[in-house]
Write a structure and sequence with these properties.
Layout lengths: L1 H22 L63 H14 L2 E4 L3 E2 L7 E2 L3 E6 L3 E9 L1 H19 L8 E8 L22 E9 L5 E2 L9 H16 L2 E3 L11 E4 L9 E2 L1
Parallel strand pairs: 5-6, 9-11
Antiparallel strand pairs: 1-4, 2-3, 4-5, 6-7, 7-8, 7-10, 9-10
Length: 272
């Protein structure tokens, strides 16, 4: 009888023992004792902890190149569209200057390290205008500017001087500036002047063979021939130049005639 009871007890306990064995974790899922817990994430770091490396040439905030970045050598900047010259048009311009008798020479390209937008791709250095009228001093400008200045001198300024017989023929035109990299009206900010592209010349006065020179200045409607000459050359300049400013236009142009060949839509002229 005792043997039968013992057998029954063993059979009843077997399922419980087997259940405990199957529930025990396998040793392969337990981390080895040498494994260290991961370090805590630094404060402020997002879920993506992989740092993005800068692309070559990429700058950090503030415009500085990362210290560990590769220095990229910039290529020569392309010629600004504003100063680029059309080869065929330039060739025709040279021919026209020679036909008029303008004394000039082709010069090296002009650039300015302070402002890449300034410059003249194919400048000419003009020493004398048609009729052997000296340009004082010699000036660098675009060929288009030189052509407008030459035509104005030949067709208008020189003929106007013939009405001043006591002064003799026109022998020189004095200017204050041709090419110069600066802002309009010499202000520190704002748009670049047409001088910065070689498109402008500032006429200060006129020299004659025997008589007194005529300086560009405000005139008080005194009815003199000097006033008439200044009025005539100023008015006719608008036929050759797209911008003509002078005494009375504003304070910046009280002592000279600003002439330029700025391109505008529909060949619009600004003559004041």
């Amino acid at each position: 009888m005792r043997t039968v009871l013992t057998t029954v007890l063993v059979l009843c306990m077997a399922p419980a023992v087997m259940a405990q064995e199957s529930a025990a974790p396998s040793t392969s899922s337990v981390p080895p004792e040498t494994s260290l817990p991961p370090e805590p994430r630094p404060e402020g770091l997002g879920s993506a902890s992989v740092e993005k490396l800068p692309d070559p040439g990429e700058t950090e905030p503030g415009g500085t190149v990362p210290e560990n970045d590769v220095t990229v050598v910039d290529s020569v900047p392309p010629v600004s569209e504003r100063i680029a010259e059309d080869p065929e048009a330039l060739k025709e311009c040279y021919s026209a200057l020679r036909a008029l008798g303008t004394a000039f020479e082709e010069a090296e390209a002009i650039t300015d390290s302070s402002d890449a937008a300034c410059g003249i791709e194919k400048p000419v250095r003009v020493t004398a205008l048609p009729g052997n009228v000296e340009l004082r001093p010699a000036g660098h400008m675009r060929c288009e500017t030189a052509l407008a200045l030459s035509r104005w001198t030949k067709d208008h300024a020189t003929p106007a001087a013939e009405y001043l017989p006591e002064r003799g023929p026109l022998v020189a035109i004095e200017h204050g500036s041709t090419y110069i990299c600066r802002r309009r009206n010499n202000l520190p900010t704002g748009e670049l002047s047409e001088h910065a592209y070689g498109n402008a010349v500032d006429i200060m006065g006129f020299q004659f063979e025997t008589g007194a020179p005529i300086a560009v200045e405000p005139r008080e409607r005194d009815g003199t021939m000097a006033e008439a000459f200044q009025d005539a050359v100023r008015a006719t300049a608008c036929l050759n130049f797209t911008t003509v400013l002078g005494p009375g236009s504003d304070a910046s142009h009280a002592d000279h005639l600003h002439l330029d060949v700025k391109s505008r839509r529909n060949d619009f002229r600004l003559c004041q």
